[in-house]
Each structure stands twice: as structure tokens, then as C-alpha cells.
Amino acid sequence: xxxxxxxxxxxxxxxxxxxxxxxxxxxxxxxxxxxxxxxxxxxxxxxxxxxxxxxxxxxxxxxxxxxxxxxxxxxxxxxxxxxxxxxxxxxxxxxxxxxxxxxxxxxxxxxxxxxxxxxxxxxxxxxxxxxxxxxxxxxxxxxxxxxxxxxxxxxxxxxxxxxxxxxxxxxxxxxxxxxxxxxxxxxxxxxxxxxxxxxxxxxxxxxxxxxxxxxxxxxxxxxxxxxxxxxxxxxxxxxxxxxxxxxxxxxxxxxxxxxxxxxxxxxxxxxxxxxxxxxxxxxxxxxxxxxxxxxxxxxxxxxxxxxxxxxxxxxxxxxxxxxxxxxxxxxxxxxxxxxxxxxxxxxxxxxxxxxxxxxxxxxxxxxxxxxxx
Length: 373
Ligand SMILES: Cc1cc2nc3c(=O)[nH]c(=O)nc-3n(C[C@H](O)[C@H](O)[C@H](O)COP(=O)(O)OP(=O)(O)OC[C@H]3O[C@@H](n4cnc5c(N)ncnc54)[C@H](O)[C@@H]3O)c2cc1C
What we know:
The strands form three sheets. Strands 1, 2, 8, 9, 10, 11, 17 and 18 form an eight-stranded mixed beta sheet that branches. A seven-stranded mixed beta sheet has the order 6-5-13-14-15-12-16, with helices on both faces. By secondary structure, the chain is an alpha/beta fold. Helices cover about 35% and strands about 25% of the residues. It contains nine helices and 18 strands. The chain folds into three domains: about 5-45 and about 95-160 and about 245-300, FAD/NAD(P)-binding domain, CATH 3.50.50.60; about 65-90 and about 165-235, D-Amino Acid Oxidase, subunit A, domain 2 (D-Amino Acid Oxidase, Chain A, domain 2); about 320-370, no CATH class. Flavin-adenine dinucleotide binds near residues 11, 13, 15, 32 and 39.
């Protein structure tokens, strides 16, 4: 039975990255994408600068805005701004960016079929038979890159239970080189206004139950931006501990949102999608007999980073005013260093913890004085 070395299910950044690097490593790869490409993906499209060493050449052509700082707000009313000389992030259009990544994977030799929904897979003669809306395909390995509702993960018995609910709309407006993020609006989440070329992406993401439409409408009113067209909703998974990661089983590896590899603080997913795609390809090259074990080892640092991001998120969202004050006093600058790849969540957590406790005590002391003196 002839077939492929690897079938990648899903043509988002995680799938394209896995296919790009697996093809580069000499494997025969097939990418199967459910929708016709170019396809829409709901996303603010912000990529941190630390992703750039992992992107194929030519990505700069798809940058709509170069981010040189941000505005952090509290409750949609208070805010402060911190600019940088260096670009810390870039805004992309996901339709164009994802198409570019797919073309780059094909440029390395990967085959691609769109409008091809994967319905399931089974083992057959030592290979996988992947069953799709366009017939069956065979391969030695599968990389599940099929996003939040990953059928590949479901087939392996995984069930998602940690995720942000997000609501976003696009409208006219100009923020140019800045992004705006507001905390203090929802219990465990935030709202944002990002530039999108000469337009704006406005949204909110929250891990708790709540009326996001009401939050986003009120936030837009406070910021003076008018929703145009409809609001779109989608989900962002995240991890808080190693046990939340869906690594995969046997010769099936999961990457990106399918594996829950997304930042629990702000829901940044593209960086982790691209990196996990690359590491999955590396695992297949280094250890074809035990790829999931190898993949787990290769992901160790990335997962550890996300676990520390989770610790920061838990504290930050529980005490949002303290997080805001700390950001004003220097933590936002450290976060820019993280986006640049100059520091890690682990360092931020370790250095910030004592500082956090001090600010927490001050906050509660002033609260006590206000009410009891
Ligand atoms: C509102 C919102 C805003 C966001 N903003 C940002 C941001 O600014 N920056 C950032 O880094 N992250 C952001 N994210 C997160 C980011 O979009 C994801 O983490 C990222 O897209 C994950 O990439 P992926 O390749 O794993 O999955 P996806 O991009 O979801 O790609 C999965 C692909 O698999 C395909 N697929 C699904 N099922 C099948 C099937 N059965 N057969 C074949 N193909 C299938 C899908 O059609 C899709 O093309 C945001 C998310 C949301 C919801």
C-alpha cells in the first residue's frame, strides 16, 4: 500500500508549520484542510516578535501593522501608555498569513487538498487510513492540527475543558502602532482593541461564564468605537498544567489548538502553533518508532512556559487592580521583553511574585484604611 509518511489534518499555522518542517526533513507529507483556501479564521492576528525565527522567509510581506507599544487600561476608564523603540509584535491578516504558510509548506514539497474534511482514521496494515469527504488516504504518521474542535484529539479520547470564550468584531479606526488591552472588565479575561491595517479588531475573551456581548458592547461604548457588521464568537483553549496538554498517542501527534497549546494569560496561540508544529516534525525525524514520547520531551520547555503563564494568569485575573498597578510600575516593560524573546514567563513569575505580594498588601491596606478609619 503506497501512501504518505505524514498526513497533517488542518491547514492553519500549526499544520502548515508541521508540514513545512517535516517536508524540509525529507518526509512525504499531505495536508488536508476542511475549507476552501483562502479560508477565514477568527483572530486578532497579533504575532509576537519572538515567533519570527520560526517563520519561513517572506512573512514580512503580510504584516499590516508593526507594534511599538501598547495602552493598558483598567475597567475601560483608567489607562496608561508605554511605547518602545523596538517593534514587539506584528498584526497580520489571518487569511493572507495562513495562505502564505500553506504555500511555503507546498514549496517544500508537501501535497495539499482543500475542501477535504477528515471524518476519522483507523489502522490498516501497519499504516493509518484517514477517511475524508474526498476519499481515503494512507500514512505512517498523523499530525492533528485541526484546531479547537479537533476531531483527531476526540478520536484519541481527549475532551477539552479549559478555554476562553471570545467575541470579536471589526470596524473602521486607526491605532497604527499600538495595541490596547483592558483588564478589570470581566472576571477572568480582558478586552482588546488592535489595529488591523487601517481598521480595528475589537474583542473580549473570558474563561468564565458571562454575557460577552454585553461586555463588548459596553467596552466599545466606553472607547467610542462603533461595531460595524456582526460580532463573531469562537474559542481559545489553554493549559495550566502538563496534564492539560493533548500530546497525542502512538503515531498520532497533536499540535497548536488541537493540543491546547495556547497562552492562558492572553490567549496567544499562533506562536505556540508554529513552534509545536516544528517540534512535531522534529519528533518524527528523530524518533519515528516512538514519536509521541520524543514530542513530549521536545515540548517540555514550551509547556513549562505555559504553566508559568497560567500561574501568572490565575493571580493576575484574581487581583486585577494589583496587576494593573504592577504593569504601570514596570511589569508591562518586562512583558514586552517576553514578546521579544528576551525573558520567559518563568522569570517573570519568579521575579514578580514577591513584588506582587507587596503590592497586594498595599492594596488591601489602603482598602482597610478607606473603610475603617
Ligand atoms: C477571537 C480570537 C482572537 C485571537 N487572537 C489571537 C492573536 O491576536 N494572536 C494569537 O497568537 N492568537 C490569537 N488567537 C488564537 C489563534 O487564533 C489560534 O491559537 C491559532 O489559530 C491556532 O492555530 P492552529 O493551526 O492550531 O488552529 P487553526 O488556526 O484553528 O487551524 C485549524 C485548521 O484545521 C481545519 N480543520 C478543522 N477540522 C478539520 C477536519 N476535520 N478536517 C480537515 N481540516 C480541519 C480548520 O478549517 C482550520 O483551517 C485568537 C483566537 C480567537 C478565537
